[in-house]
Amino acid sequence: MAELKSKIKNTKDKVAGKAKEAFGKATGNEETELKGKIQSKKADVKETLDDTKEKIAKNINDMDKDK
User: Fold this and answer.
1) Cα–Cα distance for residue pair 66/58, rounded to 1 Å
2) Which residues in the chain land under pLDDT 50?
3) Where do the structural domains in the chain lie, given as residue ranges?
């Protein structure tokens, strides 16, 4: 369940970041555009980290089954 919540939050942050970035571009506000890019990239990093944690947990569980 925590994985689903994390994925939803990451998706929300990514969409919000893209929206901020677009708004910043449209209004010529570089600060807002940069904040949007950062928020979006932060969500990407968290998503990658979550995927890596899942893979590690799966590998550990697979190793335990082999014993």
Assistant:
1) 13
2) none
3) 2-66
